[in-house]
């Protein structure tokens, strides 16, 4: 009897013999440019396989081979991938749109800041190639929008993170050397008045040491600037000096010049963002992209990829003790392990959802770190910003493209202070 049963089972296709397979894995849902992944594809039919990413090549979830479910191929032809159907479709609304507005160079495009009074989006372009580059501005007063270059006075070298606060653009200047446009600049924090084009240096050292990169930042309600300082300017040849400081994150008070270390536990702290009510702070660790640090070997300006190292967003509670004056991050916990590449740009929407650029797209996460939906692009997304009168216009940018999404997810109004 046992031999007979084994013989019968041997003729049943393996995919059908599995119990609990999600079928179909993917299906059309909502508008035509949207697909839904059922049950997060928790049980796939064998034999499935997702190749490893390596160095500069990121193998996305959609590239997983699933020959026993042809529905999986729908992931490759959709602008929006929904994982939580109810909340994801609500975010997208009845008519979500994705449009690649500008084809740009393969240089990294970063530090987007929307200035509501001008209805313009300011951003930067970085290496490669290494060198002094102008910034970019998108004029949203015109349709189609217009992209142009501009230089501030004095110029800012390699802005890598940016935000808007009390009428000024705050930029994290990520690179430095002693001959930029005839002057010396070092990694630090600069402001730009978008109405006069004048810039001011707020910070350029930690007790005489150069900062490493100043990658990303935000400004809190009291005017303190929180920023991350990984090693990427060295790896990307945007600085002539090997890192002098540990990769860590800081809080800076422009009114007094004080700088505090807020976290030193991450390998390469990258994106940083605050929740709308100011209770939580998120910092991403992208140390899966790392490199060699040695001033003796300047030719090793390069980064490598280790898939099993951290590409993780961490969530912290913000302790702000009015009696003692202590401000600290507590209760660190892993929040999201990016399903593609690394969580680069990082911001929090008005409703508290966390948004991050991850490989060729953007992931939207709820407050527990659950993936709700993903925007897909044909280029690596470094950062993004909300724009427009109601802050539902969403601009993405990276290596090779600048795109616009129209949906129902609103950004925080940075023209107002945090509550």
Automatic annotation (TrEMBL):
Record Pfam families? SGL
InterPro entries, per database record = 6-blade_b-propeller_TolB-like, Oryzine_lactonohydrolase, SGL
Keyword field contains Phosphoprotein: no
GO MF terms listed in the record are: hydrolase activity
**Origin organism lineage:** Eukaryota, Fungi, Dikarya, Ascomycota, Pezizomycotina
Domain spans labelled SMP-30/Gluconolactonase/LRE-like region:
186-287
Q: Which domain of life is it from?
A: Eukaryota
Sorted alphabetically, the keyword list is:
Hydrolase, Signal
UniProt signal peptide: 1-17
The protein's name in its UniProt record:
Putative lactonohydrolase
Q: Does the keyword Phosphoprotein apply?
A: no
